[in-house]
């Protein structure tokens, strides 16, 4: 009889824990969605540096060179371990591990050996992954980055350590909806330029820019692979850029905004 009561109590306790977890998960997801939806409201806006590519309407914008990487923030889903970011001096060359001829412009990636007085800096991210395939670490800029024009492609230099984790970019469209694009897997050793082509289904309407509504960059995040071990992982990044088509936004009077 006592054994039966003990078993019954264990079953009741298990059911209660399950119910609590089911109630808590939607709340956590809603909190995250609300946080993503409010990013950019009341924050400082930063205009990236634009480079014309020779085409009259095609521009390459340097969204972040990470020279002020210490201002970025980081958040991990893992409650244990150490999660932090660090601004680091570039040691050695940034050169593609798949094709050594692919390198960033020299003036953007001078190593400490090449320019001791003014070396390039990169973003370093450290986090602990405990749940295989579920944990992720997300890092956000201190400013809001509005994409003025139609974004075609995002790119970033990422240092791989041979682990199979994945990198994503998070965007918010002019309707305040969040979109996540896969930039690539980190299953390689060395530097590699990862890219994400902006799909046609992602809402971009340059007519909305006259109302002050743009596609904007929210964050980057790395997701753990379900076959990798638990433990600390380190990520390094440089040169976040976006390719933009501005063929439909530059015309006489386009600077006048319909948001008064």
Describe this structure in words.
Strands 1, 4, 7, 8, 10, 11 and 13 form a seven-stranded mixed beta sheet that branches. Strands 2, 3, 5, 6, 9, 12 and 14 form a seven-stranded antiparallel beta sheet that branches. The protein is mostly beta strands. The protein has two domains: 1-38; 47-245, Jelly Rolls. Helix content is 14%, strand content 39%. Strand 2 and strand 3 form a beta hairpin. The model is unreliable at 16-34 and 37-43 (pLDDT under 50). It has one helix and 14 strands.
Could you outline the blueprint of secondary structure elements for this entry?
Blueprint: H1 2-38, E1 45-46, E2 49-52, E3 58-64, E4 73-76, E5 84-89, E6 121-129, E7 136-140, E8 144-147, E9 150-161, E10 166-172, E11 178-185, E12 189-197, E13 215-223, E14 231-245
Parallel strand pairs: 1-8
Antiparallel strand pairs: 2-3, 3-14, 4-7, 5-6, 6-14, 7-13, 8-13, 9-12, 9-14, 10-11, 10-13
Radius of gyration: 22 Å
Query: So what's the overall shape?
Result: globular
Report the total helices.
Answer: 1
Largest sheet: 7 strands, mixed
Order of helices and strands: HEEEEEEEEEEEEEE
Based on helices, strands and strand pairing, what is the structural class? Answer: mainly beta
CATH superfamily of the largest domain: Galactose-binding domain-like
Mean pLDDT: 81
CATH topology of the largest domain: Jelly Rolls
How much helicity do the residues have?
10-25%
CATH-derived architecture of the largest domain = Sandwich
The number of domains is 2
Counting DSSP E segments of at least 2 residues, the number of strands comes to 14
Strand content: 35-45%
Quaternary state, please?
A: single chain
Q: Which residue ranges are poorly predicted, with pLDDT under 50 across at least 5 consecutive positions?
A: 16-34, 37-43
Separation, N- and C-terminal Cα atoms:
76 Å
CATH class assignment of the largest domain:
Mainly Beta
